[in-house]
# Entry
Amino acid sequence: MSDIDKNKFKFVTEKEKEFEEFRPSLTYWQDAWRRLKKNKMSMVGLVGIVLIILFAILGPYFTSMSYSDQINDFKNLSPILQIYEVGPDTYVTLTADYSLIRVDKKGRLIERLKEFELNESVITDESRTDFTKVLSPTEQKKKNDEAKKTLVKAYTYGEDLIYLDYSGVVNKDLDYKYVFTYKGVVTNEKYKTVWNKKYPFGSDNLGRDVLTRVMYGARISLIVAFAASLVNFVIGVTYGAISGYEGGRVDNIMMRIVDIINSVPLVLIIILMMVLIRTQNGLWRIIMAIGLVYWVGMARLVRGQILALKEQEFVLAATALGVSRKNIIARHLVPNAMGPIIISMTMMIPSAVFTEAFMSFIGLGVSAPMASWGTLANNALSGILSSPYQLFFPAAAIAITMLAFNFLGDGLRDALDPRLRKG
Amino acid sequence: MGKYFLRRSAAAVLTILLIATITFFMMHSIPGGPFTRERPVPDSIMERLNEKYHLDDPIFIQYLDYMKGLVTGDLGPSFSIIGKDVIELIGGGFPTSAKIGLMATILIIIVGIPFGIISALKQNKPIDYIVMFMATLGVTVPSFVIATLIIYVFAGLLGWIPTFGLENPLGYIGPVIALSGYSLSFVTRLTRSSMLEVLRQDYIRTARANGIKEVVVMAKHAVRNALIPVVTYVGPMVAAILTGSFVIERIFALPGMGGYFVESITNRDYTTIMGITVFYAAFYIIMILLVDVAYAFIDPRIRFEKGAK
# Structure
């Protein structure tokens, strides 16, 4: 050893020292987070999810109405109001079912005008010139008396009547759609179009605020989705872990059961479950039904992971140290399989939202007055032709949630499990 | 191969019987019988009803009777639609559901697969973005929303198609599009990603290096291999499309099986629920079986592996 010349060694310079420094080692989760942050789409998804959750939790505090408040006067009001100036400082807006609502100049809702029953004598009353004025153009084009009678409505406003001739809606030959007559003054031009300030998303067929209902619907839909995913997580992970760890005959039997469940369309089992679970609480029922059915996929995934993990040395070491089987599964195996489990959970949530909407839509979901997005969409169905906005908002909420979770899920898959990375 | 098919068929039959058993006992554990009404039925009538439908027999005897009927293709009478057998209900509703399901499946295959392939070949070009955007929209928007939108736009605003019913051939357009929406988007995405995967394989490069025409490389080497995962999805999808049609049938007021199923659940019509469940399950299992067999034909690797077992 002594024949090595000491001069052959030299101290490292400061610059070289720096070169030797390594970047700090990252844990699995830090690394995953770093990769997730790089993925723009998944960050959009994450922000979207946070916003949806805030919308559901905080939203209802900012609206003045509760989700079950019914104002019969203001039913079926669209988010966009067409205002007509029928007289000096008298403004009205028209609803989808041809009734009039008095509004102020800025479009704030005041009251629904009472409809005045038009009978034969009024229609043929020649002295009421204000009315025949409206009727005459219609009369020339439509010879049928019955048809013309049904196309005129009158509303009491103060001492007088406001007449509405809406023949133009049916008769495409006419160059107007609506004509208002009030105190002999004829108006057929829109004054202006404004946003509905009281009901930003419109109101439904019972005069409830759609915005508030979409917010509460978000609560129900998200609670169902998260709780069902949790049930699915508990059952799926336990089942899969036991099956994978025990192996042999236990594994064989457990997996055959999974095969059988998997060979029936899941929606079918959920429907049967909904019938079977007899609690009064509709929310619990749907959570249990979805959670008790969807764990199959999770169980398979976890089993696969555990099968691969249990052959590794750290499990052998734990066994040698006398760690109980329960603890090996809970402390050593499951935490190591957490990546794929989390990805699967993220993908599970949107499909639970979807399934819940589907169930509510066929009338098997939460019971009234609670409403999820699916129920809202279902309720909107009957009036779809006159008030499509009632369907649009809950449907958009479902779609946005689905998109956000799917984006995040894709990103998580790339970040947590690089082997599964897509091309 | 024959042995594999036999073994799989036996397992399928066993599964169907097992599902029938489970459904039977599930239905009978529900409190309240099929004749429970808001206004109580007099006891004597109840007895007669129970006697007529053999509901007073011990449950085990009822079970044996049901299974006997199931094997001979008799699913018993419907409890709520008087004078109709469940098998008649299925026979009446299934053709409608099947017709729409079949059309949707054809649409999915002839539209989804080509678009997926085009999208993969033109990766990151405008056409790829457009196709992927549509496909993403298709998986995120529920089928009932698509259905209502179709009614609103094409039946309501434009008046091109009828709002409900199938008397007019144009009436098929709405249900078929709404029914295929989700799966169509899924198949497109699946074909695209599988195609991209295949295009990266060595054998594609080898084929190109051998000077084979690009068209032939694509048709013979790439597409054939890329379709393997798609086949797996399409089989169960056909069955799922039929179950997914409850909502569509309701919206378009079609006389299909889905309507009977939902109705039978609210009416606690045991035999109809069981009958339709078993029918759906059997259908689903047979579809999966067919796919597995088809798979063994398409992909020799699978045949070898399974045959060796």
